[in-house]
Amino acid sequence: MVNWSALETVFLDMDGTLLDLHFDSHFWLEHLPQRYADHYDLSPEEARDRVIPMIMAERGSLNWYCTDYWSERLSLDITGLKAEVGDRIGYRPHVKDFLQALRASRRQSVIVTNCHPDPLKLKLERTGLDQHVDGIVSSHQLGKAKEDPEFWQDLQHLAPYRADTTLMVDDSFPVLESARRAGISQCLAVLAPDSKQAANEQHPEIPGIHHFDEVIPALRQCPPLPSCK
């Protein structure tokens, strides 16, 4: 499923891959429409009918992920509203064990996320996730979403990598397809990103896992890279 011996760098999505996507699903589909209804004196149904189509129209673009954009578009403090339900932020199963094994293997681990820096800060404060990886890059630093083919070339400026020795792990098939087109040699899909929802179907060409315990044994058995010290 993953040829660990051929890898030097592992790029990891955050939401739906390392963290439970339930937080984001709940926020965008339930909490935000409810707070929008409260703010504009609408029924919950009216609010959802207005907000959800606006959100879905931006799917795959950088605006889709941008809290500044939605704060201005909806005249609401999106980051503040996310903090209201911050107790729902949490790890997916086996993630900490996987990150420990990855660090022990001496392969470079970098979170590559479309998450805006403001909610990213909130999630790191809640989880300490940044303590378990070598780096974090938000697509907002590059002005392009991961779905954009040019994203991967620009990523070299913030997280240099060799495409032929790199793995990308993500719950988004469009992102993984974008990474493959950019030459990333190995891709792995997370099929169960949201703990409250059914798993996604397997991609015909991209291998997938439900949880990281499916790949931890092989990672631990793979000899670590030589120390750079």
Automatic annotation (TrEMBL):
Task: Spell out the Gene3D superfamilies in the cross-references.
Answer: HAD superfamily/HAD-like
Pfam families, from UniProt?
A: Hydrolase
Does the entry feature the keyword RNA-binding, yes or no?
A: no
UniProt keyword list = Hydrolase, Metal-binding
Q: Which GO terms describe its cellular component?
A: cytosol
Keyword Transcription regulation recorded: no
Mind listing the GO molecular function terms for this protein? metal ion binding; phosphoglycolate phosphatase activity
GO terms for biological process? Answer: DNA repair
Q: Which PANTHER family match?
A: GMP_IMP NUCLEOTIDASE YRFG (PTHR43434:SF3), PHOSPHOGLYCOLATE PHOSPHATASE (PTHR43434)
State the name under which the record lists this protein: Putative hydrolase
